[in-house]
Design goal:
The protein has 466 residues and is mostly beta strands. The protein is built from two helices and 33 strands. The chain folds into three domains: 101 residues, Macroglobulin (MG2) domain (Immunoglobulin-like, Sandwich); 99 residues, Immunoglobulin-like (Sandwich); 215 residues, no CATH class.
Length: 466
């Protein structure tokens, strides 16, 4: 046998082997066309913003299937599209598809589903599912949820059930938000309901992984009104100007205190007066010092201290608000410094440490160099003082501190001079210690209210929930 004949035989065998492998992978080489034997959508009448189920039976007499693409169309617009992987020469499809509500979508709209099946050799077959109806969702109310935790109820207007409005707001002039149909018990968004946010720079339906939308009120100090048009998917806001008694961060100045960023405002505060708070100061996570403020609503606080000039301090990391005065001293105040006390906050030590490494809920020190070193106790009666503090430190469950009458270490109050009632957490004759020795019980780190009565030398301590 000649060399040429050998080459021809080997080439022929290789070709046959390739054809055999090709048939195994793709089915017979003969071209064929898929067949969509049946297709349906359930339910046939659905609400935009819900999911539908597409079922179909697809076969091909000779070639493996590769995919089924779909388009859901209403009012000449594509509401949803995608591709469902299929294989073999017979495939039963059951696939859930989310159908969003788009802007300006009519109610009781005619909906059509276009299908195209394809095999591996590019053969195709088309099919249409008709007789479907899409309805607009009906909301009795919606919730405006800002990224910093504020929540407002959006109620439908009497003249137009698709327009929802919230009045009397005290939001910043710019804020990020989502609009939700449902809330969980903790006021977080329940994504089993419809949620609106940012879709390509416009308002649209979003899932839990979607983005918040953005609102801005021009020529104003704060946002007072929010209007959501659920048909056109648009938002309009209007604002107003602050009055002299209103508290908003736009009036505060910034300062670094003890290595932490603060916002500060000097203000004459009147005992018993109620002050509206705006924007970030109305955030429900913020904790107003309960010894000096009573929070009667998310956006209103009543001042409990004596009428006078104060500095209001806001720590945006700790999210707490407290007051200070120049040269605080007895008989109006007692000052407590040492280790292991902190003004109450809803922010965890881990969250604080993520911004200020090594720091936590407690912040006091021995000294009076800045307002983080000590805490104020307010006089609530003749020689009776009240202070509410987070103690001991949750990193070591230890505290050691002492009250004084002024910032010059004047007239210290030794533990041995008092009888302690209520929660028995203090030990020692000199410093007021919460010990953490091997044989000491672990004291829970929590908010405790101390009431010091200098008349009968008693101290009552109770754990409080804020």
């Amino acid at each position: 046998m000649s060399f040429t004949h050998k080459i021809l035989i080997i080439t022929g065998l290789t070709t046959l082997l390739f054809i055999s492998c090709n048939d195994e992978e793709y089915g017979p080489k003969k071209e064929s066309t898929p067949v969509i034997e049946s297709a349906a959508v359930s339910p046939a009448a659905f609400t935009f913003g819900d999911s539908i189920t597409l079922t179909a039976k697809i076969t091909d007499p000779a070639t493996n299937l590769s995919g089924l693409t779909y388009e859901i169309i209403s009012d000449s617009r594509v509401l949803a599209s995608g591709e469902i992987p299929v294989g073999g020469t017979l495939h039963d499809v059951s696939h859930s598809i989310f159908v969003p509500l788009l802007s300006n979508q009519s109610d009781n709209a005619v909906v059509q589903v276009n299908l195209m099946a394809q095999n591996v050799l590019k053969g195709t077959a088309s099919h249409q599912i008709i007789g479907l109806t899409g309805k607009r969702p009906v909301y009795n109310r919606l919730y405006l949820v800002t990224d910093n935790g504020n929540i407002a109820i959006l109620t439908p207007q009497l003249a137009d059930k698709n327009r929802f409005q919230a009045d009397g707001l005290t939001y910043d002039t710019s804020f990020r938000f989502r609009i939700a149909e449902k809330l969980n018990a903790d006021n977080s968004i329940d994504y089993t309901g419809d949620v609106y946010g940012n879709v390509g720079g416009k308002i649209g339906m979003i899932s839990q992984s979607g983005e918040s939308a953005f609102a801005y009120a021009t020529h104003a100090d704060y946002t007072k009104e929010f209007l959501f048009d659920g048909f056109a998917f648009s938002v309009n806001t209007s604002g107003s100007m602050l009055s002299d008694i209103d508290l908003a961060l736009s009036k505060f100045s910034g300062s670094d205190i003890g290595g932490e960023s603060f916002r500060m405002l000097k203000r004459n505060l009147k005992k018993g007066a109620t002050y509206p708070v705006f924007g970030e100061l109305a955030d429900t996570r913020n904790m107003y010092n309960p010894d000096f403020f009573e929070r009667i609503a998310a956006d209103k606080v009543t001042f409990l201290g004596e009428t006078g000039d104060y500095t209001i301090y806001y720590n945006p990391v700790r999210r707490n608000i407290f007051v200070g005065v120049d040269n605080p001293s007895y008989p109006d105040y007692l000052l407590v410094c040492g280790w292991g006390l902190g003004y109450p906050t809803n922010v965890t030590s881990a969250e604080i440490a993520s911004t200020y490494p090594g720091r936590g809920r407690t912040h006091t020190d021995w000294g009076f160099g800045n307002v983080l070193n000590y805490v104020l106790m307010r006089r609530i009666g003749e020689d009776i003082f009240q202070g509410t503090f987070y103690t001991p430190g949750d990193h070591d469950h230890y505290a050691g501190f002492k009250p004084f009458e002024n910032t010059g270490w004047g007239n210290e109050k030794k533990a041995g001079e008092f009888t302690f009632t209520g929660m028995q957490i203090i030990k020692g004759d000199n410093n007021w210690d919460i010990p953490n020795g091997a044989n000491d019980p672990v004291v829970e780190s929590a908010n405790y209210r101390f009431t010091i009565n200098l008349n009968n030398h008693t101290v009552h301590i109770e754990k409080v929930t804020l």
